[in-house]
Amino acid sequence: MKIKISPSLLSCDYSRMGEEIKNMKRCGADMLHIDIMDGHFVPNITIGAPVVKSLRGCSDICFDVHLMLSEPLKFIPDFINAGADIITVHVESASDTRKCLETIKAAGIKAGVSVKPSTDIENVFEYLDIADMVLVMTVEPGFGGQSFIDAALPKIEQLRSECEARSLKTDIEVDGGINPATAAECAQCGANVFVSGTTIFKNPDPEQAILLLREASTENYMK
Length: 223
Ligand code: DX5
Ligand code: ZN
Hints:
Layout: E1 4-7, H1 17-26, E2 31-37, H2 49-56, E3 62-68, H3 72-81, E4 86-90, H4 97-106, E5 110-115, H5 122-125, E6 133-137, H6 152-165, E7 171-175, H7 180-189, E8 193-196, H8 198-201, H9 206-220
This protein binds D-xylitol-5-phosphate and zinc ion.
D-xylitol-5-phosphate binds at residues 8, 10-11, 33, 35, 66, 139, 141-142, 144-146, 175-178, 195-199.
């Protein structure tokens, strides 16, 4: 599986978002993770579709949009319109997950499904036929800068072996507390897409931070 690094905009300088995005591409990021929070599904609020739409004009980098919304189905058309390349919804939301994934796929973009740390990974298995990506949360969603939850590792392992048993090349993304050490552990279990906010944006040398994440995950993937 191709290793991809997806810096999370949640930790960027919000007064310079456009510049930050351009810089991530220059620094070698494969995609850009955009966290959308409604203050209800998670105890925090971020940005909405109009902001994503205006940022779309700044870069052609892949927009990896993570919807932490109670009713994602209501807002999926707005994020498709805003130029998302991948939209991920949570199985714990109130919307019908399959309907969400079908709506995203019908727009010709990639669909992802996510689980919170306390949700069993088996809950995504019924969507593996349609999902391009599974996002395994490695912290409680809502805030950047939290510590990695080790209990996510066996979930990643179980998911990768289920994908392999079904001959699926599903991307497995991890999000929360990702640094070179935790990226290596997740890669060993079969994760190949690495979201990172703090480790990349708070490093004075983000290019080096991306490189170290890429090295750690490449060297350890399924080892
Ligand atoms: C948390 C978000 C993450 C967050 C990760 O709910 O989904 O994308 O930005 O931040 P770090 O990498 O700082 O743990
Ligand atoms: Zn996220």
